[in-house]
Amino acid sequence: MNLNDIDAYDLLSKENPLLLKEIAEEVAQMEFTLRRILDRGVKAQEFDSLNALYIAAQTAGEIVATLRG
Question: Taking Cα atoms as reference points, which of 24, 46, 27, 26 lies closest to residue 37?
Fold first, then answer.
């Protein structure tokens, strides 16, 4: 799945209940991967951008969890 192809109407549609599950799994995988990279250690100049991506993935996961109800 390409998250770039999903819009708010898709997310709020009740016609495809598996879509939010798939998105939640993909976002969780992103979060896990970013956390693993950060835990291994990165260069100082890379930390801020990777940490921002990690926080964005966490926030996206929280939003998807809210939408899933």
Answer: 46
Positive or negative torsion for Cα 11, 26, 34, 45: negative
Distant-in-sequence, close-in-space partners of 47: CB < 8 Å, separation ≥ 6: 38
User: Could you tell me the pTM of the whole model?
Assistant: 0.81
Q: Quick one: pLDDT at residue 1? A: 65
Tokens of residue 16, six digits? 């495809």
Contact 27/57 with Cβ under 8 angstroms? yes
Q: What is the C-alpha separation between 69 and 63, in angstroms, rounded?
A: 10
What whole-number distance in Å separates Cα of residue 7 and Cα of residue 29? 20
